[in-house]
# Entry
Amino acid sequence: MTEAKIASPSWTFLTNHAHVLLCLAKNPSERMRDIAVEVGITERAVQHIIVKLEADGYLEHIRDGRRNVYKVFTSKHLRHSIEKHRKVNDLIQLIKK
# Structure
């Protein structure tokens, strides 16, 4: 008997940027390769997202040997006008529950 494969949804409520940020909030030293698998995007896409998140002040990385450890700035406000009254921490707490 084989396992039934669950199809990926054609769309989700959160962006890949949010997914990457949530992964790093959960595990600050997670490798890009592992984030890519978890989010369902390429490593290169993860790299681009991290660069953008860092440039806009949502993340910073600290080198720890051969790895990066990421600090998520949870007090930053979300970007879209609909949710800009909320902070990154609000999103993390909502999804973490």
User: Anything to note?
Assistant: The beta strands are 59-64, 67-72. DSSP finds four helices and two strands in the chain. The first strand starts at residue 59 and ends at 64.
